[in-house]
Amino acid sequence: MNTEKPVQSPCVNICYVDDHDICQGCYRSVEEINAWMRLDNDGRRRVLAKVAQREMASPFVNTTNKSA
Fold it and tell me: Is residue 47 situated within a structural domain?
């Protein structure tokens, strides 16, 4: 029996979908948001990897290390 806890959603309750159907709050596509509850943890991790890439590419994310 698999007792692994479900991977948590990256939703931050800031739902604004851009022209590319990407939510600017959680960086998931509309398709990924709709599929989230049906995905197993491996599928959710794949989505989170895409989310991380989109977030880093976003002009709204500060990627500089201010503590350096």
Answer: yes
Instruction: Name the domain count of the chain.
Output: 1
- CA torsion sign, 18 to 35 to 62 to 15? positive
Pick the closest to residue 44 from 4, 3, 10, 7 (CA basis). 7
Q: Considering the entire predicted model, what is its pTM?
A: 0.83
Helix/strand/coil percentages in the chain, nearest 5: 40, 5, 55
Q: What is the pLDDT of residues 16-61, one digit of tens each?
A: 999 999 999 999 999 999 999 999 999 999 999 999 999 999 887 7
Domain that holds residue 19: 8-58
Please check whether residue 25 lies inside any domain of the structure: yes
Residue 64 lies in a domain: no
